[in-house]
C-alpha cells in the first residue's frame, strides 16, 4: 500500500495539489477502511478500482473530503452531502468564541439556535461541550437538515437537538440564549472567480450572499431581536473585509458589538454581539 500511496501522491502533486501526500493518505485510508493501513499490504482489485476512481475525482477538482464524504470539525466527524457546505477549520473560531462567551455556564441549561446549519457542525460542536444545553438548527434545505440530524446521532447529541427546514427565523416563536450562524457571504459576482473546489462542489445556497455579500446580515439585524433572549449572545461568521460593514448593520439593528475573533490566518472571522445597553 505504501507504493500505491506514493504513486497517488505523485499524481496529485503533478495535478497541482499543494498537500498531495496528506490527500493520498486520506484517500488510501478511506479505500482500506482503516486508519494507518498496513504499508506492506496490497489492495485487492475492488479497492484498487475505488482508489483509481477517487484519484480521478480529485484530479478533476473535487475536494478530498467531499470524495470520502466526511470531514472532521472540532475533533468530531461530520458527514457531508451535496446540500451542505464543507466545514472549514476557520469556522471553529465561532465555536471558540461562543464557548468563551458562555464561560462558567457551560454545564448550565441554555438554548442554542443555529441559522443555516448545514452539517450542524457549529451547533453540534457547542452541544458536545455543553452537556445541559439544547439546540435548534434551521436550514432552507431539507437535505441539509437530514444530514445534520445524522451527524447529531453520530456525535451523541440527538436527544438535545432538532433540525427544521425554514428560512432563517421565519415561524420561530421562542427566544434563544446563543445564536450562531455561518451564512452565505460571497458577493454574487465573485462566485465565478472562486476555486473550482468551492465553486463547483459547495452548494450555491451556502455561498451566495447577494450583490455585496451582506444580504443575510441585513436580515439578521432586523429579525434576531425577536428570537434572542435578553442576555443572549450572537456569534456570526464573516468573510474578508466585512467586519466593519456587519458591525454597522447589526448596530443599526439595536445590537452592541462585543468583539471579534481572528481565524487561523489572522483575519477577523467571528463577530460577537449582544443587545445594546439602554
UniProtKB/TrEMBL annotation:
Residue stretches making up the Methyltransferase small domain: 111-186
UniProt-annotated binding residues for S-adenosyl-L-methionine: 116-120, 139, 168, 182
Any GO molecular function: nucleic acid binding
Function, in words: Methylates the class 1 translation termination release factors RF1/PrfA and RF2/PrfB on the glutamine residue of the universally conserved GGQ motif.
Entry's EC annotation: 2.1.1.297
Family to which this protein belongs: Belongs to the protein N5-glutamine methyltransferase family. PrmC subfamily.
Transmembrane spans: none
InterPro entries associated with the record: DNA_methylase_N6_adenine_CS, HemK-like, N5-glutamine_MTase, PrmC_N, RF_methyltr_PrmC, SAM-dependent_MTases_sf, Small_mtfrase_dom
Protein name: Release factor glutamine methyltransferase
Keywords of the record: Methyltransferase, S-adenosyl-L-methionine, Transferase
GO biological process: methylation
Taxonomic path: Bacteria, Pseudomonadati, Pseudomonadota, Alphaproteobacteria, Hyphomicrobiales
Reactions the enzyme catalyzes: L-glutaminyl-[peptide chain release factor] + S-adenosyl-L-methionine = N(5)-methyl-L-glutaminyl-[peptide chain release factor] + S-adenosyl-L-homocysteine + H(+)
UniProt: substrate binding residues: 182-185
Annotated ranges, domain Release factor glutamine methyltransferase N-terminal: 3-69
Gene3D superfamilies in UniProt: DNA helicase RuvA subunit, C-terminal domain, Vaccinia Virus protein VP39
Organism of provenance: Bosea vaviloviae
Amino acid at each position: 500500500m505504501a507504493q500505491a500511496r506514493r504513486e497517488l501522491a505523485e499524481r496529485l502533486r503533478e495535478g497541482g495539489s499543494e498537500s498531495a501526500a496528506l490527500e493520498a493518505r486520506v484517500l488510501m485510508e478511506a479505500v482500506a477502511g482503516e486508519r494507518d493501513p498496513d504499508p506492506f499490504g496490497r489492495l485487492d482489485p475492488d479497492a484498487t478500482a475505488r482508489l483509481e476512481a477517487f484519484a480521478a475525482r480529485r484530479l478533476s477538482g473535487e475536494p478530498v473530503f467531499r470524495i470520502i464524504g466526511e470531514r472532521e470539525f472540532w475533533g468530531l466527524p461530520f458527514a457531508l452531502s451535496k446540500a451542505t457546505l464543507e466545514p472549514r477549520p476557520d469556522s471553529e473560531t465561532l465555536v471558540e468564541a461562543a464557548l468563551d462567551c458562555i464561560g462558567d455556564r457551560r454545564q448550565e441549561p441554555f438554548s442554542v439556535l443555529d441559522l443555516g446549519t448545514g452539517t450542524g457542525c457549529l451547533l453540534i460542536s457547542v452541544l458536545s461541550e455543553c452537556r445541559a444545553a439544547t439546540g435548534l438548527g434551521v436550514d432552507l434545505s431539507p437535505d441539509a437538515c437530514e444530514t445534520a440530524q445524522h451527524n447529531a446521532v453520530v456525535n451523541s447529541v440527538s436527544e438535545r437537538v432538532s433540525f427544521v427546514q425554514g428560512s432563517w427565523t421565519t415561524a420561530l416563536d421562542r427566544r434563544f440564549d446563543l445564536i450562531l450562524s455561518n451564512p452565505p457571504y460571497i458577493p454574487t459576482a465573485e462566485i465565478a472567480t472562486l476555486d473550482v473546489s468551492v465553486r463547483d462542489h459547495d452548494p450555491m445556497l451556502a455561498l451566495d450572499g447577494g450583490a455585496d455579500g451582506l444580504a443575510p446580515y441585513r436580515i439578521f439585524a432586523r429579525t434576531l431581536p425577536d428570537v434572542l433572549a435578553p442576555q443572549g449572545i450572537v456569534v456570526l461568521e464573516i468573510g474578508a473585509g466585512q467586519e466593519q460593514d456587519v458591525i454597522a448593520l447589526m448596530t443599526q439593528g439595536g445590537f452592541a458589538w462585543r468583539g471579534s475573533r481572528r481565524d487561523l490566518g489572522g483575519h477577523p472571522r467571528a463577530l460577537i454581539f449582544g443587545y445594546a445597553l439602554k
